[in-house]
Amino acid sequence: MLTLPPFEYHAPTSVEEAVALLGAHPGAKLIAGGTDILPNMKHRLLSPAHLVGLKAVRGLSDMKEEDGCLRLGAMLTIAELAKSPRVRTLFPSLSRAAEQIAGPQLREMGTLGGNLCLDTRCIYFNQTHFWRKALGFCLKKDGTVCHVVKGGTRCVAAASNDTAPVLMTLGATVRLAGPAGGRELPIGELYVADGVANTVLRPDELVVELRLPVPEGRVLAGFQKLRVRASIDFPLLSVALAAKVEADGRVDWLRLAVTALGARPHSLGGLERFAGRRLDEPLIAELGRLAQKQCHPLGNIDVEPQWRRQMLPVLVRRALAEALTVPA
Q: What is the pLDDT of residue 324?
């Protein structure tokens, strides 16, 4: 049986108290639903001496609509996101992504903030200590080599958070709290290309809220996830797409984001070329080819990278087909 290493648990009741605890205990980790950090601790992938729990922190589980935005607290559970009629109506792709995360029991415990800050995963890292030691460890922990990219100097463990690419396509911003107060940034700027620590969060900061602008006009949005099993599994590839379409059927703007390729979710560039065009078969085919050109899966997941790359245009087409079936 896997056991937890020893640690001291702290239960703050305010954001300010949580921030103070993180500052007072260097190396402390946050725990929200615990669905990611506790298994990792049991496998000795990390062994913090202090855990700062967020369950009792006031206001972090709120959902409210004001100032043209839907505000989602970081401690909202994945199940609440999936089931919320308001989220399903305004942001169906976010609801769709949430209902495909893990299994029902884990969705009841896992949180939005936890999913955004989910630790990166790699076939060479998410193993037992004995297995990793036999291989000589890796850049992400205890070692000096990357087994995915030979000679690589930066960890390329895969971002596996399904909500992140959806929120990127929906123009979300994330609000952080720290000792100097709060700061807000576009969700895409939360991530960096480093699998060891792939967010810009400082050791004494935490995610407190997501803000999603309520769509104006006809905005289509879809989400598709590739995985070995249709439940439980982390993504082999996730694709999120959103497009604002005018009354005459022409595209105003188009966004597409992908996760599970490398250490951070990837937002496709060059999509301005589709503005003013009709959302038809030639556009969809071109968008799929562009996704293949810009996205290069690595061998950080236990499936063939080339197969994942070939699936990109398939998932793009499916995401768009799904978006078109949702009433705008």
A: 86
Q: How many CB atoms neighbour CB 166 within 10 A?
A: 31
> What residue segments make up the domains of the chain, in order of their start?
1-58, 63-117+158-213, 218-325
In this predicted structure, the answer to whether residue 69 has a pLDDT above a threshold of 70 is: yes
CA distance 163 to 176: 17
Architecture of domain 218-325: 2-Layer Sandwich (3.30)
For residue range 138-190, what is the model confidence (pLDDT) as tens digits?
Answer: 999 999 999 999 889 999 999 999 999 999 999 999 999 999 999 999 999 99
Name, in order, each residue with C-beta under 8 angstroms of 59's C-beta and a sequence gap of 6 or more: 15, 73
Cα distance between residue 291 and residue 256, in whole Å: 9
Mean pLDDT of 81-96: 97
**CATH for the stretch 63-117+158-213:** 3.30.465.10
Q: CA-CA distances (angstroms) from residue 129 to 28, 36, 42, 157?
A: 21, 17, 10, 17
Do residues 195 and 122 lie in contact, with contact meaning Cβ atoms separated by under 8 Å?
Answer: yes
Cα 127 to the chain's mean position, in Å?
21
**152: which DSSP letter?**
-
* This model's pTM is above 0.85: yes
pLDDT at 104: 94
The three-point CA angle 9-11-16 to 5° equals 125
Domain covering 1-58 assigned CATH 3.50.50.60 in the classification: no
C-alpha span between 157 and 164 (Å, rounded): 16
